[in-house]
Amino acid sequence: MRRREFITSFASAAIAWTLAARAQQPERIRRIGVLIGIAETDPESQLRITAFRAALRALGWIEGRNIQIEYRWSGGDSKLAKASAKELVSLAPDVILCHSTPALEALRRETSTIPIVFTLVSDPVGGGFVASLAQPGGNITGFTTFDFSMGAKWVEILKELAPRVSRAALVFSPESAPFAAQYMRAGEGVAASFGVKPFALAARDLAELERNVAAFAADPNGGLIILPDAFTAIHRVPIIELAARHRVPAIYPFRYFSALGGLVSYGIDPIEVFGRSASYVDRILKGAKPGDLPVQLPIRFELVINLKTARRLGLEVPPALLTRADEVMT
């Protein structure tokens, strides 16, 4: 064999061997942290995580092959949220998915460099998490829960469904919903036109909530507006039971409240939002900076009415409202 042919043959074999060796090497494993504001045992947690993982798979991110996901759940406990945030940051993940305002606040205190994608946070600008919705800046971006004008919409729907309501109390925890005043102002803007006087009904624990609801329900023609926060999500069953016990019509922010017996809900689908959040995680893993990714607003709202609960409260649902409903539970 001539020298030139030998060199060419050797070089070709070397290139083929190198390519084959690279093909056999495993993909680089990227690490994703996840901090959820409700409990791991909560069925909603598992549904949301399932949606997130499915969306990641559709984008080519497979657990055990090219990603590893570290999960933490705070269960509405601020101390646990802080501890979990510290644990996740110590693992130095490539990106963190975060759910709820308290969880995001805990993470912000731990890192200003690891990219964070939040979900179901009502006031990212007012909370100081991002500079603006269009240009977040820094290491945080994500998906908001509601525009504060939703406060007015909840008053409108509650009044349409329960015309006798003349007093409406916003139910929330001051710890997990520091943004409650924004919804209150939006509700006050239309409440007078509907003949409704708004109240703030804050509670830091279930015992305080029970006392406050009982005191509010002692006067007639009251209604409840349940704000979207970790506290109301975690205590959704006792909140629905309280409304039923005191025969107070209530409107809720998510469908799962209506599925458990809540009168009516109007809001986004959290499971859908978790699925959407995978697109931002994907872009960040591919090199995008969170500060360059605009905060995403809700794109779809669903109205769900529980007719069985309406009948128990002696309410006749207007045909126009039934027509507008995305789902009617019987």
CATH topology of the largest domain: Rossmann fold
Q: How much is the average pLDDT?
A: 91
β-sheet strand percentage:
15-25%
Largest sheet: 7 strands, mixed
* CATH H level, superfamily name of the largest domain: Response regulator
> Shape, please?
elongated
Total beta strands: 12
CATH class of the largest domain: Alpha Beta
Low-confidence stretches: 6-24
Q: What spatial order of strands do you see in the largest sheet?
A: 7-6-8-9-10-11-12
Count of separate DSSP helical elements: 13
Number of domains: 2
Using only C-alpha atoms, the radius of gyration works out to 25 Å
How do you describe this structure in short?
The protein is α/β, with parallel strands linked by helices and 330 residues long. The chain has 13 helices and 12 strands. It starts with a helix and ends with a strand.
What features would you highlight for this structure?
seven-stranded mixed β-sheet; single chain; elongated; Rossmann fold; alpha/beta; 13 helices; 330 residues
How would you characterize the overall build of this protein?
By secondary structure, the chain is an alpha/beta fold. The protein folds into two domains: 30-145 and 269-292, Response regulator (Rossmann fold); 150-267 and 302-329, Response regulator (Rossmann fold, 3-Layer(aba) Sandwich), CATH 3.40.50. The protein has 13 helices and twelve strands. The strands form two sheets. Strands 7-6-8-9-10-11-12 form a seven-stranded mixed beta sheet, with helices on both faces. It has a five-stranded parallel beta sheet with strand order 2-1-3-4-5, sandwiched between helices. Residues 6-24 have low confidence and may be disordered.
